[in-house]
UniProtKB/TrEMBL annotation, chain B:
The lineage of its organism: Bacteria, Pseudomonadati, Pseudomonadota, Gammaproteobacteria, Alteromonadales. Keywords: Membrane, Transmembrane, Transmembrane helix. It comes from Pseudoalteromonas obscura. This is Uncharacterized protein. The chain crosses the membrane at residues 6-27, 34-56, 62-80.
Length: 531, 82
């Protein structure tokens, strides 16, 4: 390869890495934590689970439906979602919309979304499920930064550039990929960072490529969907979706009221017909209508990434559709495989822990990339000192700000009362505000090693505090909680302690650096005074 | 770097769509399989084209080569669809 080509690619790799680093760091940190989303969800609402223990093994969907129908004016046009109780979440979770007589004062819509945790036997409302969404919020930070569709596409574009950075990195490093595989020099910082960057980048390459590709499919598939619709399917999105296997039968509404009964019976039948599966969710299309359809969506337990689905009409309990193999469509099968690869949900906790370590390692690769850029630019005489200081301070502020923000969010999710009005809004505000404050403060601090040292220590302490704040849960509810719930609590606490330790360890490194800087300054001042 | 990024982004998108369509129109598989192949090929082609653009010294030179890839591919789509 020509040296000019190599130089162009190296510059591009460094430039892209720097531009995308701030968002990509948030994506990887939030994504690593989100690997344990279900555990984190249990961790957040453990007080609720403990207070309502012991939990009944019996479930009566018919009773629950009758009660909901009696209490709420459920919107027939909106899909009604039901999540069955599990060992870690012993409540039925229902998500639906209610009709409003007048437009909603905030949204202006004629319906309002409801998400409730219900007693599985009596159907009594335990709590609004929207109050316990910290795990979901962190997951949103991972894929759309918590700002909806715009964030989704923005993260998609960042992921595309991440893919470009990966490919350019492979091309740049190709000749030394095997020769320098184990190289790790303990000399100058730049060599150390470069070796760590290359070593982790090379070892994690299959993982990085898989994440970049699968992430792109989730966030930017719309690009190909639109282009296929326009060129191959005469502009019809519906035809594209049909070809893509989203063609399960749908029945029109009859506009005649009917009670939603017979679900308990159909549940047993569906589980028999689907075989060894884990139920993901149930759905009712046209809730309360004579033509209501009950859908069971599940995942096969004995096959890799196989989605199964069965549908019945509630009126006469007739099966209208069943699939045992990803909707009998290769594209949907492919998408299910891509999803399983991305979430690492196919090989137990071992796989998720490996993904977690690789996720944090990628965050380290991102940091070292920025540090190398700063170090290289600092040596260039033409480099503007102001812009260099800006990038240096932004790197510290945004990266550490992300850690502090998520840690504070976790503490808030643990200590804020479960019945607090606007609980999730408060948690969102805490996370975004702390990130913003940390980033802005960093921009005004000249002594960056000290800033990093203290802010990293603070991050570590807050993560440790989140784990510590959960200790009363063990004491208060330890005897009544199931093993699955206790395992969830332990995993989340361990994860927070691990992140806290990493933050503290990094802070110690910065403390050494700060001390070194102080010594250098003292030495220079001493030399000046003697001369 | 911005001109190369924008050029690579747009041409990468166009070329990836065009090549994905080529495969869709040529490969003798079921419709769902062809769509899946297009989806799998699309993003790596898009990213690969962007890397290729960055490897050139100037955006103008890159644009010439990109047109040499895009035009035959697009032409093939037109021929296959008409």
């Amino acid at each position: 390869m020509k040296s000019q080509t190599l130089k162009s690619l190296t510059n591009a790799h460094a430039w892209i890495g720097l531009i995308i680093s701030f968002v990509l760091f948030i994506v990887f940190i939030a994504g690593s934590i989100s690997l344990f989303r279900e555990n984190l969800d249990t961790w957040e609402k453990v007080a609720l689970i403990g207070e309502h223990a012991p939990h009944s093994q019996q479930v009566s969907y018919d009773t629950v439906m009758a009660k909901l129908d009696e209490q709420y004016q459920v919107d027939t046009h909106h899909i009604f979602y039901l999540y069955e109780p599990t060992e870690r979440n012993p409540f039925i979770q229902a998500y639906f919309a209610v009709d409003l007589d007048e437009p909603h004062p905030e949204t202006g819509e004629d319906h309002q979304d409801m998400s409730l945790l219900l007693d599985p036997v009596t159907g009594d409302v335990i709590a609004p499920a929207n109050n316990f969404q910290f795990a979901n919020f962190v997951y949103h930070l991972h894929y759309d930064l918590g700002i909806g569709r715009i964030g989704l596409y923005f993260v998609g574009i960042i992921t595309l550039f991440f893919f470009v950075a990966l490919l350019s990195g492979v091309v740049i490093h190709w000749r030394k990929l095997f020769n320098n595989f184990y190289q790790y020099r303990f000399g100058a910082n730049k060599d150390k960072w470069l070796d760590a960057h290359n070593l982790i980048g090379t070892m994690g390459l299959p993982f990085h490529i898989m994440y970049a590709f699968t992430g792109l499919v989730f966030n930017l598939v719309i690009v190909y969907q639109i282009s296929y619709a326009l060129i191959l399917y005469q502009g019809s999105q519906e035809k594209v979706l049909q070809a893509a296997g989203f063609n399960e039968p749908h029945i029109e509404e009859a506009d005649t009221r009917m009670a939603m009964t017979g679900i308990d019976e159909l549940y047993v039948r569906a589980m028999e017909e689907l075989g060894d599966v884990t139920l993901r969710r149930m759905m009712i299309e046209h809730f309360g209508d004579e033509n209501a359809v009950l859908v069971f969506m599940a995942k096969s337990n004995d096959e890799f990434s196989n989605e199964v689905d069965v549908r019945y009409t509630l009126k006469d309990q007739k099966q209208i559709y069943i699939t045992h193999d990803n909707y009998d469509n290769n594209l949907r099968g492919g998408l299910a495989t891509i999803a399983s690869l991305h979430f690492g949900d196919f090989a137990g906790y071992g796989m998720r822990i490996a993904f977690f370590i690789l996720g944090l390692a990628t965050a380290y690769v991102i940091i070292t990339g920025n540090l190398m850029w700063i170090s290289k630019r600092a040596k260039q005489k033409k480099q503007s000192q102001r812009s260099l200081a800006f990038v240096t301070r932004l790197t510290s502020g945004a990266f550490i700000g992300c850690m502090i923000a998520i840690a504070l969010g976790a503490v808030a999710a643990k200590v804020l009362p479960i019945d607090l009005e606007g609980r999730m809004t408060s948690i969102h505000t805490i996370v975004y505000t702390s990130f913003f404050i940390c980033t802005v403060v960093s921009l005004f601090v000249k002594q960056q090693p000290q800033f990093c040292q203290y802010s990293l220590k603070l991050s570590g302490l807050v993560f440790a505090l989140a784990a510590l704040a959960n200790m009363p849960s063990y004491l208060q509810y330890g005897s009544v909680l199931s093993n699955a719930v206790l395992v969830d609590l332990f995993i989340v606490d361990l994860m927070f302690i691990t992140i806290a330790s990493l933050c503290w360890y990094s802070a110690q490194k910065f403390a050494k650096k700060a001390k070194q800087v102080q010594q250098d300054i003292a030495q220079v001042q001493g030399e000046l005074s003697t001369s | 770097m911005w001109p190369k990024s924008i050029l690579g982004f747009i041409f990468g998108l166009l070329i990836s769509i065009s090549i994905a369509l080529n495969t869709n129109l040529i490969l003798p598989f079921e419709e769902d399989t062809r769509l899946l192949i297009g989806l799998i090929l699309g993003f790596p082609i898009w990213a690969g084209i962007m890397v290729w653009v960055y490897a050139f010294e100037t955006s103008l030179k890159a644009a010439k080569y990109l047109l040499l890839v895009l035009l035959p591919s697009a032409l093939l789509n037109v021929i296959l669809m008409v």
